[in-house]
Amino acid sequence: MAKRSGFSEKRMLNRRFRGTEEAILDALFGAKNFLNMKSVVGGAKISRSTFYRHHKTIHSVVSDYERYVLKKYVKILSKIMHKRDVEIKILYRQMLVFMMVNKKVLLFLLKNNNGEVVRKMIRKLEPSVVEECRWPKESKKMFEIYVNEIFGVVEGWSKENFAEGRIEVVLGDIMYLTETSRKRLLPLEN
Fold this sequence. Notes:
Elements: H1 9-12, H2 15-30, H3 37-44, H4 48-54, H5 61-81, H6 88-101, H7 103-112, H8 116-123, H9 126-133, H10 140-158, H11 167-189
């Protein structure tokens, strides 16, 4: 019987699988060119077959991690968003805590997918943001500018390695951008 290959949240619960993923991530961080199989398996001290049990190809690693992170994030967020009258501040705090807890993977993704995963995480909050900011429902352009502003704050925090001691300052900056967005961004819509 062939061994299963692939990267999933269920498999990440296995300590041995997770340990190998940690080694792969460490090797990817240390590799000069992350798409070099030899440097990754050598740095992780694993065989090629072990690598292929975790990822289909060397080129799929970034997308595997992006799917994994977004799936975990949406699962956590959906539990909170279904509550009535949830404050946007609570949603952003949860997002920041999630980033802090998963910083190794998120730093890897920020480096290798131009921050698209973080932008997707912010976009998941769109209904709450539009309601909180009292924007017109068709304000897609405003929301994209807002996403880029929030991404800038998060990217700055990532340069501090998602330091726990800075979470309240980062949340304060995000809330300031959220509270002042109507004044700043509504003229851009017209």
